[in-house]
Amino acid sequence: MTMFGAVWLLLLFYALAKNNKRMMITLVLFSCVFQSSNVFVFGDTAIGPQIISSAVVSVYFLIYKFKSGQIRVTKEVFSIDKTSAVLFLYIVVISVALGAFADNYIRIFQLMFYMLCFLIMKDAGAQLPDNYVYVTLRKLSIFILVVGVFQLLCTTNIIPRYWFIRDLFWNESAGNGEVAQFMWPWGPYFRFFSTYLEPSYFVGFSIGALFYFINYKEKRNQNYILIAGLAMATVLSFSSSGYGALLITGIIYIAFSREGKMRGYILAGGLASFVIMYFGFYDILDNVIFSKLQSGSAYARATWNLEALKTFNSSPIWGVGYKNCRASSMFYTILAELGTVGFVLYSIFMFSIVKPILSKKKKLKIGDEQVGIIFALIGVTASQMIAVPDLDICTFWMWMYFLGLIIGRNKRRLGGSRCVMQ
Question: What are phi and psi for residue 45, nearest 5 degrees?
C-alpha cells in the first residue's frame, strides 16, 4: 500500500462507517483525477483510487437499493443505461467466445464497475442539492489548476520535488519507468499535466471543464478567471491531441450552441489565439502541430493505427476481443477489438449521450449544465479519437459520473421532489 493509498482508504472507510453518502460520491469524483496515484502496487500491477472507489461505492449503493426494492429500468429505448449495458454485454460475450476473457477479465470488471457507478450517480443525483455538481466541479477545477502550477514549478526545477508530495500525487512513477520521465527525474519538463500521467490525458479534463463553465450561462460571470485558467492550462499542455480536441469541440459548440454572441466570442477568441501563437510563439505551434506529422511520434502512432486496421481486416465482424489490440486512436482500437458490430454499438452508446443537444427543445428541457457536461464528453471523446485509445480512461468516466448526477437531479426536479442527501 502506498502513502496515498493509506490516506485514501481512511477517507473511504470513514465515509462508509458514517454512512455519509455525499462524501462517498465526492470521493469517487475526486478519485477520477488522481491518475498518477496508486492505492496498491503489486510488482508490475497497480490499483488506483478510481476503480477502488467506484467499485466500493457501487456495491454499497446497490445493496441499499436491493434491500429497499428501488431497482427500476427506464422505459426509453435508446437510453444511456441500455446502450451501455448492451455494449458491455457484447464485450463480455465476444471476449468469452474468442477465449480472451481470462486474459482481460480484470479490465472487463473495471469497465463494468465504471458503468455501474454511472447508474449509481443517476440515483445519487436525485438526492443531492441542486448546486452539487457545479460546486464540486468548480472545487475540482481549482484544485487541478493549483496542483498543476505546483507540478509545473517542480518539473522545471524552479522548486524542489519534495518526496512526500511526489508520493501523494505522482506515486505511479515510483514503479513505472514509462511515466517516470515526467515527475521523478531531475531533467526539466515544461508541460502542464497536474495530477495526470501526461498532458494528453489532462486535456480531457481541462477542455471538458472549460466548455462546462462557458456553457453554464447562469454562473459564467463568476468564473471568467477559472475559464481563463483552464484555457491557459490547455495551451500549456503543449499536447497535439489536446489542441486538436479543443478545435473539434469548439467547432461543434459553435454549430450547436444557442447563444449567437457566445459563438462569436469563441470564434474570435480562437482566431486571436491562433494569430498570437503563430506570430509570437511559432516554434511551439510548429513543434506541437505543423511538424508533428513528420515526427517520430506521429510515425509510431500511424504504425499502431495501421497495425490495428490490419487486425480489424483479419476479423472485421467481431474483432479480436476487448483489450487485445491497442492503436493510437480509439477509432482504430474499437474497430480492431470489437469489430464492426462493436463499433456500431459504441456509436449508438455515444449517440444516446449527445442526442439532447441535437434538439433545441431538448436543450431547453435539460438545461445549460447538462448541455455543458455533454460538450465535456465530446471534448474527451475527441481526444480519445486522436491519441487516447482507451474506453476505460478515467477522464471519460469522470464526465459520465457528472452526467449521471445531472440526469438524476433533473429527473427529481421534474418530479417536484426535494433532495434528501445534504
Answer: -105, 130
What pLDDT score was predicted for residue 181? 47
Closest CA to 125 of 117, 213, 215, 142: 117
The three-state secondary structure class of 42 is strand
Question: What ranges in 315-329 are assigned the alpha helix state H?
Answer: none
* Domain coordinates in residue numbering, the chain: 77-415
pTM recorded for the entire structure: 0.90
Distance CA 319, CA 312 (A): 6
What average pLDDT does this structure show over 296-325? 87
Separation between Cα atoms, residue 171 and residue 46, nearest integer Å: 10
Handedness of CA 196, 200, 204, 208 (dihedral sign): positive
User: Quick one: which of 217, 198, 136 has its CA closest to 401?
Assistant: 136
- Residue identified by cell 443505461 is 81
Distance CA 150, CA 173 (A): 17
Summarised one tens digit per residue, pLDDT across range 401-414 is: 999 999 988 887 77
CA distances from 145 to 70, 162, 194, 197, 241 (A): 39, 19, 7, 15, 19
